[in-house]
Amino acid sequence: YPNPATDDLNIAFTLQNESTTTIELLNNLGQVVATQVLGSVSGEQTAQMNVSSLESGMYIVKVKTENGETTRRVSIVK
To answer: Is residue 78 predicted with pLDDT exceeding 90?
Structure first.
């Protein structure tokens, strides 16, 4: 959230078990345009990613853990 985002994107998720977590932001070509490594976390988490330098368009947020990954679409508008 917010979706669409302009400057900052907040990524909220919950992990049942402690896990090394990485967040990736991919463009519509599947290229990673931003990465944030959170390390080993558990429970409710909120990470903030600055997207002010990215072009307007659709992106995919990918939260990767040792147990798998989750993806969501997000729109960035300038």
So the answer is: no
User: Distance (Å, rounded) from C-alpha 21 to C-alpha 56?
Assistant: 26
What pTM was estimated for this model as a whole?
0.90
DSSP 19-59: EEEEEEEE-TTS-EEEEEEEEEEEEEEEEEEE-TTSPSEEE
Would you give the DSSP letter of residue 6? S
Cα separation, 76 vs 59, whole angstroms? 7
61 by DSSP, 3-state: which? strand
Q: Read off the tokens for 9.
A: 């994107």
